[in-house]
Amino acid sequence: MNIVLLSGGSGKRLWPLSNDVRSKQFIKIFKNEKGDYESMVQRVYRQIKTVDADATVTIATSKTQVSAIHNQLGEDVGVSVEPCRRDTFPAIALATAYLHDIQGIGMDEPVVVCPVDPYVKDDYFEALKALGEQAAKGEANLCLMGIEPTYPSEKYGYILPATKEQISVVDTFREKPEEETARAYIAQGALWNGGVFAYRLKYVLDKAHELIDFTDYADLFDKYETLTKISFDYAVVEKEPNIQVMRFAGEWKDLGTWNTLTEAMDEPTIGASVLNDTCNHVNVINELNVPIVCMGLKDVIVSASPEGILVSDREQSSYIKPIVDQIQQQIMFAEKSWGSFRVIDVDEASLTIKVTLNSGHSMNYHSHQRRDEIWNVISGEGTVTVDGMEQAVKAGDVVTMQAGCRHTIFAVTELKLIEVQLGEEISVHDKQKFELDA
Amino acid sequence: MNIVLLSGGSGKRLWPLSNDVRSKQFIKIFKNEKGDYESMVQRVYRQIKTVDADATVTIATSKTQVSAIHNQLGEDVGVSVEPCRRDTFPAIALATAYLHDIQGIGMDEPVVVCPVDPYVKDDYFEALKALGEQAAKGEANLCLMGIEPTYPSEKYGYILPATKEQISVVDTFREKPEEETARAYIAQGALWNGGVFAYRLKYVLDKAHELIDFTDYADLFDKYETLTKISFDYAVVEKEPNIQVMRFAGEWKDLGTWNTLTEAMDEPTIGASVLNDTCNHVNVINELNVPIVCMGLKDVIVSASPEGILVSDREQSSYIKPIVDQIQQQIMFAEKSWGSFRVIDVDEASLTIKVTLNSGHSMNYHSHQRRDEIWNVISGEGTVTVDGMEQAVKAGDVVTMQAGCRHTIFAVTELKLIEVQLGEEISVHDKQKFELDA
């Protein structure tokens, strides 16, 4: 199976765990069989590989997520990087061109496009595989997945199939309805639109060439910024008369809010916490290294990360976005392709961060105009390069770097360091990257 | 006025703001007229000095609090240090000997003893002054303050005066009663026992010599550990037939729990926080530098410090002690006589702390057996001494110290540094102090 996972933008609906640089799909919140926590993207990737070990998985996403993807999934996963956000039609067109030109997928091979964050069991990915096989037959230009509705939701679009069979021609689509209307749709046999499309590669590549003037993947990538924002639904689905839908009756959840996310947790708490026995229906997700004590709470969600602390009534938590949009907070934590960093102290003319480099990785060779830096290696072994001079380092070693000097560090083993930044104008934008001569 | 403030032990009733090294009286939670936050001990000290600029204030406390007292009140305040805790009679005897032998207070001068943490207006200290003047007259051996009760509390002892006059002979005392009994006492004209005694210095010094075999303050201090634990009430008050009580009808609150403390806050929140409009009767005290967002909460107290996070129903917060007693948490923050420190990162073989030294102060000259240390100066100017060698330092300077080497730093201006500790067995007990040759 060739599967494209659409990895959406950053969002604050799950603040403080999600922020401008960490999307919800990267939060490690689900326990896998080994007892380790995994993120939504790790869970979905693992499930796909369980169902189809040979699956070609490509993540369509913006460049801000590339580091986190490689950090969580390793280097083998394909990534179709959108230079900027242009909605789903350009994103799917780019990913399709990437599959053809870079991954060498043939014109008649099926492609399945799916959001990166459904909370499902393995049977869902079995169904995606079947959907791809159905698309390969060419009976229809597009094959969608229709989820059997469990209640008259106002959150989803609806698909009306022509028949009640497992695979049916699509009669019509309906936008997100009011509850009463949803009830009527369901009575007519409507299915939830799960945002999944399967097609033969050629179909979308042709559509892309019809609507966009480009030669190949590289050309489309280069002119991506000039493209019009348009959704795949609007550009393709609504205009296509020949669409099939395949029913799926398994478990399917969309964990976009604190309310739904916490319902899917295996245990009520993650991280250090103590709840007294007067607490009822309380979830705690604590990414800090100090405990959270809860007493006498009912239907409350508590979440703490280096970004901040949320304490919310379960139902109110759906209305978080405008509240956290008011908060001006510098990024306190980020995952990078080479590891991660966390801000541990902010002062007037200094910033102190803890950096973890994964074994075998290094950060970019770079310099800063307006700040000096000091590296205090606290664990591991590595190699530091400063202005072209290489030096082995280990725990206890200190490296000082004046503003303007070029520097990087390569981790021979996992390496951690405390970086002290000193200057009056410390900014993430004060960074020049260089090529490191081999 | 000569006033002795009894500064009680550490406690966890206000965790995470109070902990094993920070007692509740040092938490900065009250806004003074300048708009700065001050602690209970700072508020009380300021009020005493407002009422009587010449007052001799002596804090009777354990050595663990001496740093915090000097840090918050400066060097002028007298401190009678109890080498260990031996309850209130030995503490008051020691403070009284300190007043006589060290401060030179005469035998006939009055002394007022008062807890360090009443939440009161200035009129309370006017009343203490009057109480001292009453004691000086010598009409009675002890003069107590009786608070006019506002409700039949079960939390306080009661004093039954012989008459309804402002100053009366005490008829009898009653232990903390049940509510019904309290109601009956109040009907009989009983007053709350506010834990305040005034006496002529000689009276308590004589009692001390009667009950303890010692020569002077230094001798009493030396044998303090051998003394029996006994309360002043039990050793003196209950056996004394000649006691007066003076009524006080002003505002008087005992802020010992989250519930009472938050009721005394001038504004519902301290520190970075956002409460949405569905919150009702919510208090937030946030000592962290990231925001707390509260949504849809009612009657909830949220408090965050480097030690941890409390989220509690207002009423439940009274039952916090057994809950936090379960928590094994290293000290994450402490005030010292020379400044303060905060743990900012804990790893397997390293600990990183931020140290702030007040201008003109230095830490002890000391060494560690089992850890190396690195100082990264991030602001200010000072002088470092390492194994007897002195060196001026400023922001950006790095000092590395191997295990065993003796070191200290003196702050010429306020000085901040990031200290990276490296070793397999990092412990606060691994510290040897030395004299620094001038």
Which key features would you list for this structure?
homodimer; 438 residues; alpha+beta; six-stranded antiparallel sheet; five-stranded mixed β-barrel; 10 helices; 21% helix; 37% strand
Write structural notes for this entry.
Two copies of one chain form a homodimer. With 438 residues, the first copy, chain A, is α+β, with helices and mostly antiparallel strands. In chain A, the strands form eight sheets. Chain A has a six-stranded antiparallel beta sheet. In chain A, strands 8-11-9-10-12 form a five-stranded mixed beta barrel. The longest helix of chain A is centred in the N-terminal third of the chain and has 16 residues. Chain A is globular. Chains A and B meet through strand 17, strand 18, strand 19, helix 10 and strand 21 of A and strand 17, strand 18, strand 19, helix 10 and strand 21 of B.
The count of helical stretches of chain A stands at 10
Main beta-sheet strand count, sense and barrel state of chain A: 6 strands, antiparallel
For the biggest β-sheet of chain A, the strand order reads 20-21-22-29-24-27
Helicity of chain A, in percent? Answer: 10-25%
Helix-and-strand structural type of chain A: alpha+beta
* Spatial gap, N to C terminus of chain A: 39 Å
Biggest interface between chains: A-B, 60 and 60 residues
Write down the overall mean pLDDT of chain A.
93
Please report which band the strand proportion of chain A falls in: under 5%, 5-15%, 15-25%, 25-35%, 35-45% or over 45%: 35-45%
Described by its quaternary structure, the protein is homodimer
Low-pLDDT stretches of chain A: none
Radius of gyration of chain A: 24 Å
Strands of chain A, total number? 30
Q: What is the general shape of chain A?
A: globular
